[in-house]
Structures are given as structure tokens and as C-alpha cells.
Amino acid sequence: MPRLILLRHGQSQWNLENRFTGWVDVDLTGEGEAQARRGGELIAEAGFKPAVMFTSVLKRAKRTGALALDSAGLKDVPVVEDWRLNERHYGGLTGLDKAETAAKHGEDQVKIWRRSYDIPPPPLAPGGEWDFTADARYVGKDIPAAESLKTTLDRVLPYWNEAIAPRLQAGEDVLIAAHGNSLRAIVKHLFGVPDDQIVGVEIPTGNPLEIDLDAGLKPTAARYLDQTRATPLPAVGA
């Protein structure tokens, strides 16, 4: 049966600065690079040899995947990039300091924007510093002005069905190096996590999540490869 590993990118510069990042293409910190390399070592120790790695078009995910593959001795694994695996688009919150935003709008409101399943933050104003419509990576794409986790899932799921699931159904092992919210969307889909519970699922940076799947791509087992940095997982078969 196929195995899937979900790898959230290592710590980014804006993770360190506590800023809403979304689609801004920030790089890894030194700690993030170390997390990525350690993730690769854990992947090798688990005997995991993916047939393909899927990732987003953002450098923090791409570099995490590349560093992990290199550390695991798997540099020749083919890599497929797609914007639909990008982080959630944080709209008008993009670039803002999270603590300052909470002070301005109130912690309850910011918690709703960050953690509710289907309520997006305010939209991104066109023409500003973080307007991505002119970015060559997104030309001709239906670019959102803001996303909730629900609308993030709405863009991730078609790509999962179109590109990723067929590889798993063919019996291949797959690595996905992406982001907290795009990976949470996949976890919600695979484990059938209810809307009001998925907001509590937190995926640590740089800690590979191995999921064993049956022929119908339903999880039969799941574990973080670094148990010292593990967070609670949805129940298998929930």
C-alpha cells in the first residue's frame, strides 16, 4: 500500500518575525534549513523513497523539499511544482505583525481570521506591495484576494485529485513539501476531520508526517517521524 509524507517547510524568516506570510515568497532561516535537513535524515531512517515530490511555487517549501531530499540521499527524485499547493492567502493581513494586528483589531477578531474554517480575512487591496496578480507564476490563474481554510481546500483538492492521488493509487510513495494550511487541507480531506476540529490541527515545521494509506487512499496509520516535536493527529478512521 502507498505511503505519503507531508512535510511542512522549515521555519521561515517571517515565521521568526511573527508576520502573516501567505503567498509572500520569503526564505528559510538557518533554523528552517536545519529543520529541513533533519527532516530528510528522518525520511531516510524510515526507509521512505518517494517516486515523486510535489511542492508549491514558494521558495520556503521548494528549498525545504530540496534540502530534505539531499539529506536523505534522494536528490534524483522528480519534483513537481504547482501554485495550488501554496500557503493560504492571508489577504489584507499579509505582511502584518500578528501581535500588532491583535492589538489593533482585538485578539478575538484575529483568532476568527486565523482559525475559523470558513471566514476569510479582509481582502488584499489591488495595486499594493503584496498584489500578486502581475507575478508571472500566477498569470492566467484565478488569484484570490483572501482565503479561508475552506477556500484553500477548494483549490488544493482538485490538484490532489488530478495530480497526486493517481500516483498514490498506482502504488507509488509520495512526498509533499508545502505549507501549514495547504497540508491541513489535505489532512482534513484524508482523515475526514470535521470543520470545527480541523482548526485545531497544527503541523510542526520540518517534521515529516508519514501516513500509510489503503487502496482507497484512506489512512490506516499516521505518525510524525520526530516524536519529540509531534502534535496531536486526527484519529485514523475518524
The secondary-structure element order is EHHEHEHHHEHHEE
Return the structural class: alpha/beta
Mean pLDDT: 96
The major sheet is characterized as: 6 strands, mixed
Biggest sheet strand order reads: 3-2-4-1-5-6
Low-confidence stretches: none
Protein name: 2,3-bisphosphoglycerate-dependent phosphoglycerate mutase
Organism: Brevundimonas kwangchunensis
Pathway: Carbohydrate degradation; glycolysis; pyruvate from D-glyceraldehyde 3-phosphate: step 3/5
Keywords: Gluconeogenesis, Glycolysis, Isomerase
Give a description of the structure.
The protein is an alpha/beta fold. Helix content is 37%, strand content 12%. It has helices at 13-17, 30-45, 59-71, 98-105, 107-115, 149-169, 180-191, 195-198; strands at residues 3-8, 52-55, 79-81, 174-178, 209-213, 219-224. Strand 5 (209-213) and strand 6 form a beta hairpin. The mean pLDDT is 96.
